[in-house]
């Protein structure tokens, strides 16, 4: 087995992409991209830290929670989390981001690449308020590329197939796993307790 270290080595092994795959990259969002984003309740957001390490985070809310401001601009609210703010710190150091939009029941996905800026404009954040609570910041993404990704990965994963779902009890609760990983002495939070706590702090 050899380590592959050059584009030439990789192309020699994989060949060239078919013309349709090479041509499908759009410089802006078209009607199909906008429709997918409007129906998507879940996006995976990637960024790169100042140390060069890649980072990914899941973001989800009601379908269309990522706003399409125009064909080259997306707005993503930063709803309450654990305050690690990894993605925001990464964007300060390196504005390049990638987004992967998923829709339950649809095996194709939408990939978007661009640069991001963090905004705390009161009127902008207020547009994403839930009840009385608005996010502290929003991420404004300036789109450079957008393209559809084929269904093969999700088909292989059977991601939306009810028969492929595991019973949650097959894996310890997050509280139990964190207790082991952090060496905590306290009684672990049960899965039910965690879900109840999260439900009260979603926004």
Describe the protein.
This is Pyridoxamine 5'-phosphate oxidase. It comes from Methylobrevis pamukkalensis. By secondary structure, the chain is of the alpha+beta class. The protein has two domains: 17-159, Pnp Oxidase, Chain A (Roll), CATH 2.30.110.10; 166-203, no CATH class. The protein has helices spanning 7-14, 19-23, 31-39, 86-93, 122-126, 152-157, 174-182, 191-200; strands at 42-48, 54-60, 67-70, 73-77, 96-103, 106-119, 138-149. Strands 2-1-5-6-7-4-3 form a seven-stranded antiparallel β-sheet. Strand 3 (67-70) and strand 4 (73-77) form a beta hairpin. It is globular. The mean pLDDT is 94.
Summarize the model shown.
The protein has 203 residues and is α+β, with helices and mostly antiparallel strands.
CATH architecture of the largest domain: Roll
Average pLDDT number: 94
- List SSEs in N-to-C order: HHHEEEEHEEHEHHH
Strand portion, in percent? 25-35%
| Count of extended strands | 7
Spatial arrangement of strands, main beta sheet: 2-1-5-6-7-4-3
What is the C-level CATH assignment of the largest domain? Mainly Beta
Total helical elements? 8
CATH superfamily of the largest domain: Electron Transport, Fmn-binding Protein, Chain A
Distance between the termini: 50 Å
Radius of gyration: 20 Å
Tell me the count of domains. 2
What does the main sheet amount to?
7 strands, antiparallel
Query: Which class do the helix and strand fractions yield?
Result: alpha+beta
CATH topology of the largest domain, anyone? Pnp Oxidase, Chain A
Helix content: 25-40%
The gross shape turns out to be globular
Low-pLDDT segments, ≥5 res: none
Protein name: Pyridoxamine 5'-phosphate oxidase
Pfam families: PNPOx_N (PF01243)
InterPro entries: Pyridox_Oxase_FMN-dep, Pyridox_Oxase_N, Split_barrel_FMN-bd
Organism: Methylobrevis pamukkalensis
């Amino acid at each position: 087995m050899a380590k592959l270290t050059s584009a030439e080595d990789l192309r020699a092994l994989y060949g060239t992409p078919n013309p349709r795959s090479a041509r499908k990259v759009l410089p802006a969002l078209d009607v199909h991209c906008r429709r997918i984003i409007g129906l998507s309740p879940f996006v995976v957001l990637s960024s790169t830290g100042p140390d060069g390490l890649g980072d990914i985070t899941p973001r989800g809310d009601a379908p269309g929670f990522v706003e399409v401001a125009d064909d080259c601009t997306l707005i993503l609210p930063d709803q309450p989390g654990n305050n690690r703010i990894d993605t925001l710190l990464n964007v300060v150091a390196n504005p390049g981001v990638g987004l992967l939009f998923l829709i339950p029941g649809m095996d194709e996905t939408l990939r978007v690449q661009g640069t991001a800026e963090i905004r705390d404009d009161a009127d902008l954040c207020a547009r994403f308020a839930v009840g009385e609570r608005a996010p502290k910041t929003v991420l404004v993404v300036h789109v450079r590329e957008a393209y559809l990704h084929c269904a093969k990965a999700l088909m292989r994963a059977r991601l939306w197939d009810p028969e492929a779902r595991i019973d949650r009890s097959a894996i310890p609760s997050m509280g139990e796993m964190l207790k082991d990983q952090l060496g905590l002495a306290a009684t672990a939070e049960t899965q039910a307790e965690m879900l109840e706590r999260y439900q009260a702090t979603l926004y």
